[in-house]
């Protein structure tokens, strides 16, 4: 097992995920986890994650005794600076800051870079730099503006890299991590997602104990996998509930209910659209929307729970990108958004929370779904936000606005399928903008709304790039939208990657 100490990077669990892909179990823990606990857990190696802090100011530091465990250690970005600081090197703020893609020069042979070739593209995100390497370390890589981009003390098996090897923007980053995990830490690589399924079923059973759980299902990949996994753990003590909040895609409520019941889940459907629209009346702030929807969801579940004796837990299909972008889970990571599955939960809740997928990424969840023999048509669906179309209406959420957006979204998805590119897209969506624009229809001047279309490719939702869709697909989509939805007079296409943008607009 390899332990990742979380210093607040948005990518901290991505490190653990990359290690799991190498067949090695990995856990993320707070940056100050005592060295005694690391040893007690039988760790094979330790990784210091990146983070938004600065060791030149009030720094987050691990238990110093971690350095004396004799375990292989890899510091990433801020983690490298922490390593340098603890080993009496020098870290300083630099006039030259590196953000984004940089070309790394491998200066010396190192087991960390075994099999890597130049040019070596690396993803940087730092202002501080190591300006004096610690005693015992030697520099093994640099960039044009950074003399110490990677360092090693081979005798103690301690390494530091200023770049992020865990992100896809560092193409040879997986090789670097594999070298650390296999060559330096000497792991076997015999762990699998099948082991995760077994452990999750066991853990959820222990968590719920003799009680029972209610599970929110939406027909999406996450909630479906969470429900099937929870059913294995709890059997008839799991009560799946499908809440139709009126914010789903066109015709989706009926399709989802029929699919879930067809899988053998005893799903109860609750019609609550009117209640949600009433709660959302007059709200335009994105965070307020999410919290309003999250709290209403929970209240609906609690009301249903009171009708079921012995109910103690609420199961949700929360994934790690939802968690890490909503709040800090194990370290001091910066908040990017709130999410109804996590940030939107009310402070007082009658049910305990169960989130069996909260440390997985979307592609890992799909793999777990295959192991659970879930229909590939469900596993291949694009991600859809828990708050539904409410966060794709950048204004007050009204039934009229939802109907218009449902139509636009349905046309977009239909044309992606018709053009044979739906499966090439990780997520596609339509957004109703809070602006009006002039148009001409039937020789008359119009003044209608604008819809923005967005389609991205991604591996895990942490980063994403826009898709260069075929011109005919975009043309047919735009023409159909303005011809069939009277309130919409203009269609635009979003060409922004993540970062700097997020995938959703709110």
TrEMBL record:
It is an enzyme of class 6 (ligase). PROSITE patterns: GATASE_TYPE_1, GMPS_ATP_PPASE. Gene3D superfamilies: 3.30.300.10, 3.40.50.880, HUPs. GO terms for molecular function: ATP binding; GMP synthase activity. One of its GO terms (cellular component) is cytosol. Pathway: Purine metabolism; GMP biosynthesis; GMP from XMP (L-Gln route): step 1/1. HAMAP family: GMP_synthase. Homodimer. This is GMP synthase [glutamine-hydrolyzing]. It comes from Eiseniibacteriota bacterium.
């Amino acid at each position: 097992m390899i332990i990742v100490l979380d210093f607040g990077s948005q990518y901290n669990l991505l490190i653990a995920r990359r290690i799991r892909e190498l067949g090695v179990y990995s856990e993320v823990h707070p940056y100050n986890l005592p060295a005694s606990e690391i040893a007690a857990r039988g760790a094979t190696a330790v990784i210091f994650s990146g983070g938004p802090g600065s060791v030149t100011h009030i720094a987050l530091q691990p238990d110093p005794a971690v350095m004396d465990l004799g375990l292989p250690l890899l510091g990433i970005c801020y983690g490298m600076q922490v390593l340098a600081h603890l080993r009496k090197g020098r870290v300083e703020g630099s006039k030259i800051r590196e953000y984004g893609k940089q070309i790394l020069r491998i200066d010396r042979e190192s087991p960390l870079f075994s099999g890597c070739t130049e040019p070596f593209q690396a993803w940087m995100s730092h202002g501080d730099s190591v300006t004096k390497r610690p005693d015992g370390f030697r520099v093994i890589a640099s960039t044009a503006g950074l003399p110490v981009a990677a360092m090693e003390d081979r005798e103690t098996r301690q390494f530091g890299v200023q770049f992020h090897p865990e992100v896809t923007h560092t193409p040879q980053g997986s090789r670097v991590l594999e070298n650390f995990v296999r060559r330096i830490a000497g792991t076997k690589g015999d762990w699998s997602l099948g082991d995760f399924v077994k452990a999750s079923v066991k853990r959820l059973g222990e968590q719920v104990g003799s009680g029972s759980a209610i599970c929110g299902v939406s027909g999406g990949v996450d909630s479906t996998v969470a429900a099937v996994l929870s059913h294995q753990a709890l059997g008839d003590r799991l009560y799946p509930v499908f809440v139709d909040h009126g914010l789903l895609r066109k015709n989706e409520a009926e399709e989802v209910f029929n699919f879930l019941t067809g899988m053998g889940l005893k799903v109860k459907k609750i019609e609550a659209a009117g209640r949600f629209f009433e709660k959302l009346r007059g709200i335009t702030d994105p965070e307020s929307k999410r919290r309003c929807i999250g709290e209403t969801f929970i209240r609906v579940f609690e009301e249903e729970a009171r009708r079921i004796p012995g109910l103690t837990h609420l199961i949700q299909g929360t994934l790690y990108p939802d968690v890490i972008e909503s709040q800090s889970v194990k370290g001091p990571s910066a908040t990017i958004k709130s999410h109804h599955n996590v940030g939107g939960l009310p402070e007082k809740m009658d049910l305990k929370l169960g989130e069996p997928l909260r440390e997985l990424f979307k592609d890992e969840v799909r793999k777990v779904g295959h192991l659970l023999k879930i229909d590939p048509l469900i596993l291949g669906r694009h991600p859809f936000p828990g708050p539904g179309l409410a966060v794709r209406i950048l204004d007050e959420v009204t039934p009229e606005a939802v109907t218009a957006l449902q139509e636009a979204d349905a046309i977009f998805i239909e044309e992606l399928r018709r053009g044979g590119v739906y499966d090439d897209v990780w997520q596609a969506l339509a957004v109703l903008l809070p602006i009006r624009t002039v148009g001409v229809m039937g020789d008359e001047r119009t003044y209608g709304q604008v819809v923005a279309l967005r389609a991205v490719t991604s591996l895990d939702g942490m980063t994403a790039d826009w898709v260069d869709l075929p011109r005919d697909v975009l043309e047919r989509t735009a023409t159909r939208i303005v011809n069939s939805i009277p309130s919409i007079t203009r269609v635009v296409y979003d060409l922004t990657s993540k970062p700097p943008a997020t995938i959703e607009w709110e």
